[in-house]
Write a structure and sequence with these properties.
heterodimer; A: six-stranded mixed sheet; three-stranded antiparallel sheet; B: mainly alpha
Amino acid sequence: MENIVTVKNLVKKFGDFTAVDGASFSVKRGKIFGFLGPNGAGKTTIIRILTTLLKRTSGDVLIDGKDPQADANEVRRSFGIVFQDASLDDELTAKENMEFHGVLFKVPKKIRQERIEQLLKYVELWDRKNDLVKNFSGGMKRRLEIARGILHHPKIFFLDEPTLGLDPQTRNHIWSYIKKLNQKEGITVFFTTHYMEEASRVADEIAIIDHGKIIQQGTAEELKKITKSDSLEDAFLALTGKTLRDEDASTSDRMRERLRRFRH
Amino acid sequence: MIGSLGQPILFLVALGFGFGPIYQKAGGGSYIQFLAPGIIAMSVIFTAIFSGIEIIWDRKFGFLKETLVAPVSRLNIMIGRTLGGATVATIQGIIVFGLATIVGFRPMSLILLIPAFFFIFLIALLFTALGTAIASVLEDMQGFQLIMNFLVMPLFFLSGALFPLAGLPSGIKIISYLDPLSYGVDGLRGTLVGGSYFSLGLDFLILGALTLMLLMLGSFLFSRIEA
């Protein structure tokens, strides 16, 4: 089918609070799709619903033709994901993290070995394969997570703020890995970011979400034309307004802050 | 691991030699012999609960997310985690056992070390499952402090780990009867030094049944985790 992700009238309520309010969008197979929105817009909630981590209140969701709630394990086999917060095991080596993923995703042993070598070389971490991940920099961890995320050859790759907090060289490298994957293997890429010029450079299509609804979907050029803006960032601000989105710190924000303090 | 050995050893040495003379005078025999099984249990339960609670952290910042998007059943993940945590806690208990022999503790029979080992493992399993069940519903590490002070500490102190259950005022005795750890400590003490309060069979049965129930509760709550 042409659309690898279809979302129709997705609703998610947390008690009285409606995080996602009837969002509808679709992602074409083989494209790079950017999912942009202000804080609290519902981006992370939607990604969690698409990736089987959260149950929706109502609406239809299909990932590669399957419902993430009804066919969770099937859907999990079809996607790979790099989370915003690292999900590696710090006490294992790079290679061991890859092995673990291969075992969890039931990649047969011989294929697993070949792919681990191929992928670690691809993200230029093969010579660090026996080093413990806790000694890796943020950029190295992100590269490892990319290699790990596609080990089981998924059809779609979810990336939640993949270049957050990284230096320009690493950011450049990461996008070139991802674009090459998309061009050569035809993997669909679904990412979120706050870096507008990155989105404008790499995305084939962009959807902008605010207050739990999709406000606008189109190419970066189309969005600029509609809002008569010179840059994607201006188009974004035109569509979502310039007021600050103050949120209360969630428990994860608080924990993240504690982690940051602990690390320094 | 080394850091967490400090507290049990401290308890053993300070309380053991401190209360030793009075206990002996009161007709209880060697306090070190009585105390050591309780201290072994102590190191086991603290390690076990903590490994279960680690889930709270792991859920957001760690490896757990990776397992939640894998095509693996939640039950499998939970069993794996619980067995892993219980293994670490058991090893901790064995190390404390070794250290206790250095300060003069002597198990009464080598053969009975085998059922003793099973009691250690069962206690570890029960408390890891408990930790996992609690962690599956907590969102924040703050709740962990509360759990330690209002659940784990009372369970430990009222389990007969530090003092005999015989002759206690009935109020405390009733609570001790309700405390699952009492049966674990009693079983461990019975196999290591003899003189168990309940029968070994009863200890094993109650411990086993409670562990099973907690494992089921833990896996149910764990399967409902949404990252």
